[in-house]
Amino acid sequence: MDAAEPSLLEIVVPAYNEAARLPGGLARLSAALDALPFPAGVIVVDNASSDATPQIVRDWTGPVPVRLIGCARRGKGAAVREGLLATSAPYVGFCDADMATGLEALETAVGLLRAGHPVVVGSRRHPRSRVEDYSHPLRKFGAVTFNLLIRDLAGGVTDTQCGFKFFAGPLARAAAADLRTAGFAFDVELLMHCVRRGAAIIDLPVEWRDVPGTTFSVRRHSFPCLRDLARIRFKTARELSWPVPPPWVTAERPALPVAPVLPVAPALPGAHVFPVTETSRSGPG
User: Fold this and answer.
1) Superfamily name and number for 9-243+264-282
2) C-alpha to C-alpha distance for 139 and 76, rounded to whole angstroms
3) pLDDT at residue 102 is higher than 80
């Protein structure tokens, strides 16, 4: 694709000390984006790394544009927020630097966006997903428990923490502007802000494998995640109890060239749509 063309899709990759995993992840992501029938780009957000992460991105050459921005505030949520606000494409998303989620689902995700679904999330709990088990039973138990606790906040989504999410661009930027959670629980608040704006969420099956090197620690991060969840539930949700108009429906800028509609992948019939209800739109209490 011509690098001078404006991107139809931009993908944010948050990165904190990812010098070991980022080169392989960027290579796989760039190859997958280059195979799409429209221009796409990558934004890597360096989250105050102390290793060679930023230099790897500065030196990167590949088939799609990859640019580096910085985020001094620590936390994956802070980095994703910074990256989404730096996008300008009609469709945006984010994925982890390790590319644990198979990129074969990328074309299906974009096809769903182009079909009018404003939020598309990969789900490891979809019955048609193929998932390599978590490396530690405690981590798996914690993930299941966490999702049961927050399902009502995130529009009924069964897997809020899969690092493979895509949005209509204006919606993502509006939701990110309201995002206050800097840590690993940020996905819940981000999805909540989308639901508040009237956006139904659709999930899709993915292939996922546990990649060594994650910065998430059950011991160190469980309490901060629960603390953030309590704040989201009892503070943020109450403050934002009134629905807001959906600014993402209107154009933010002149229309970009329209890409051809992608064919629907075979996995599409298995996707679940989580419709917006008055309860999910308004939040609890």
Assistant:
1) Spore Coat Polysaccharide Biosynthesis Protein SpsA; Chain A (3.90.550.10)
2) 18
3) yes
> Average pLDDT in the 75-96 region?
97
The token pair at 285 is 């209490």
- The model's pTM is 0.79
CB-based contact 170:247 (threshold 8 Å): yes
Per-residue pLDDT tens digits for 103-122? 999 999 999 999 999 999 99
Nearest to 8 by CA among 54, 40, 45, 56: 40
Distance (Å) of CA 168 to CA 65, 171, 182, 185, 197:
20, 5, 22, 21, 12
Tokens representing residue 267 in the block: 């996995």
Cα torsion through 224, 276, 94, 96, rounded to 10: 50
| Every domain of the chain and the residues it spans | 9-243+264-282
Report the alpha-carbon angle 39-45-48, nearest 5.
165
pLDDT digits over 139-161, tens only?
555 555 556 555 556 667 878 88
Backbone φ/ψ region at 60: left (φ over 0), alpha (ψ -120 to 50), beta: beta
For 2, phi and psi rounded to 5 degrees? Answer: -70, 120
What six digits make up the tokens of 179? 């995002």
